[in-house]
UniProtKB/TrEMBL annotation:
CDD domains: RA_RASSF1, SARAH_RASSF1. GO terms for molecular function: zinc ion binding. Keywords: Cytoplasm, Cytoskeleton, Metal-binding, Microtubule, Phosphoprotein, Zinc, Zinc-finger. It is found in: Cytoplasm, Cytoskeleton. It comes from Phyllostomus discolor (pale spear-nosed bat). The gene is RASSF1. This is Ras association domain family member 1. It comes from the Eukaryota.
Length: 231
């Protein structure tokens, strides 16, 4: 379940209508869009026929990300400052981004999904390979939540314009680019070593909980045995 009113997740694709709009139709769509929003995140038509606007992306990452060890953001606010990655990364550290972190990006109509992913990683100082991530479109319909992974060349702002400003009609989510099995070859040696340490800690904690559970159960059984009268 995700979000209020959503009954369950489904991987059924959302079939958006993506017609080729004339310049007049684009201008009309932009006017309608700007008339419906309750913020200053307007779309603007450019002289060359393209347009600019804002898209909001929610980060739903379950695995840690890698950042330069000297530039690990201590808070989400630090990450949002979008410091560049101008220096070569020699050492990395991994940490979990805050759950459901949200970022607004100012993009062009021709900005592709892959470029959006790269921009998000720069904003949060993430140095992982962008191919490890994917941009999804999310929609709520009749109590169900639909997700569809965007191809690299799709244009999120164009989808935003066609769907309108409603977050229920369309929103964007950044997730791990999972296709089933994890492609461990895509990770660097420091990342792989870090994952092994994480797995070891999780295994040790799981074993501790199991031992504690069975020790407690054994103690209760022994107490019951001692309480039973002989014969």
């Amino acid at each position: 379940m995700d979000g209020k009113g959503a009954s369950f997740w489904t991987d059924e694709p959302v079939e958006w209508e993506t017609p080729d709009l004339s310049q007049a139709e684009i201008e009309q769509k932009i006017k309608e869009y700007n008339g419906q929003i309750n913020s200053n995140l307007f779309m603007s038509l450019n002289k060359d026929g393209s347009y600019t606007g804002f898209i909001k992306v929610q980060l739903k990452l379950v695995r840690p990300v890698s950042v330069p060890s000297s530039k690990k953001p201590s808070t989400l606010q630090d990450a949002r400052r979008g410091l560049g990655r101008s220096t070569a990364v020699k050492r990395r550290t991994s940490f979990y981004l805050p759950k459901d972190a949200v970022k607004h990006l100012h993009v062009l109509s021709r900005t592709r999904a892959r470029e959006v992913i790269e921009a998000l990683l720069r904003k949060f100082l993430v140095v992982d390979d962008p191919r490890k991530f994917a941009l999804f479109e999310r929609a709520e319909r009749h109590g169900q939540v639909y997700l569809r992974k965007l191809s690299d060349d799709e244009q999120p702002l164009r989808l935003r314009l066609l769907a309108g400003p409603s977050e229920k009609a369309l929103s964007f989510v950044l997730k791990e680019n999972d296709s089933g099995e994890v492609n461990w070859d895509a990770f660097s040696l420091p990342e792989l070593h870090n994952f092994l340490r994480i797995l070891q800690r999780e295994e040790e904690e799981h074993l501790r909980q199991i031992v504690q559970k069975y020790s407690h159960c054994r103690q209760k059984i022994q107490e019951a045995l001692h309480a039973c009268p002989l014969g």
